[in-house]
Structures are given as C-alpha cells and as structure tokens.
Amino acid sequence: MTLSDVNVLIDQNIKKNIEIFLSTYLVNFVSTENFYEYPKYRTPVIYESENFRDMLNYVLENNGDYTFYFKNKDQGLKFKEATIKINKDNSLILSLSTQAEYEEITKESLSNVFSTKYVFITNDIPPLESKEDILQYFPRSAKSPDFEE
Q: For position 118, which CATH number holds?
C-alpha cells in the first residue's frame, strides 16, 4: 500500500494548532520515538526526555527545529502515520499519511480545520524545512497549491 502525505503549513499560533492537530486527528496515535533528544541526531544534546509532552514543550519554548513522528494504533483507519515538523523559521508542517483514495478529503479537512490554503500533497520529496522552502518547491502554477504570498 502506497501512502501519500497530506500536509498543512502553519506560520502562526504554533502551540494552539499543534493541540488542535493532536485532538482532531491523532486520537489513536502513539509517538514512534521511545526516547527524545534535541536537536535530533545532532551533538551536543541540549535537552533529552522520554516524555513526548515534555519534549514538545521544550522545543516550543526554545524555538526548536524538530520533527515528531506518530503511528496509528488502529491500522484500520484512513490515517496511518502522522508528523509534526517544527521548522527553523518557526513555521509548522503537520502531515497525515493516507491512501490515495483519501487524499482530497484529507486535504479539504485540513484546510477547513486550520483555515488555510497552505495544504499540499507530497510523495517522495525531500523534507521541507521552512515556509520559504515550500513556496520555492511549489511555484505558482496550475499544478501547484494556491498559496498566498
């Protein structure tokens, strides 16, 4: 089964929007990390925790550049995996991995919940690190998302 990532870019009210994402879409999800460290895979370790909430709060308070990964405990649902990517420019990319048949309904749902046009589908592209990266990767055209600059 091939999954597509349906992403939403948020560049304001980061903490509030993470809480909305967690409570709206990630109810049956668990973090795939057993141990968190910040910054991930870099030295030296500035802060470490085994608790998702502690790590999230630390990253948010310190304007971190970090990615959290989640897996759905109930594999029968349309969302299989999720990602919360806090970027270096204080923007946020929230992603839901779903089957192709659910792409458009997921895109519409994210757009409505977060009241934004910054919703896009990715398949096998490099990780995007900022709002600027997204706007460069998806230049204005008939095939790209309708981003407002």
A: 3.30.70.120
Listed residue (99, 95, 76, 98) closest to 85, CA to CA: 95
Domain holding 95, by residue range, is: 3-32+72-137
pLDDT digits (tens, 9 = 90+) for 24-83: 999 888 888 754 545 555 556 667 777 788 888 888 887 777 888 888 888 667 888 899
- Does residue 125 form part of some domain? yes
What's the alpha-carbon Rg for the chain, to the nearest Å?
Answer: 15
Angle at 16 between CA 89 and CA 53, to 5 degrees: 85
pTM for this entry: 0.81
Domain for residue 42, yes or no? no
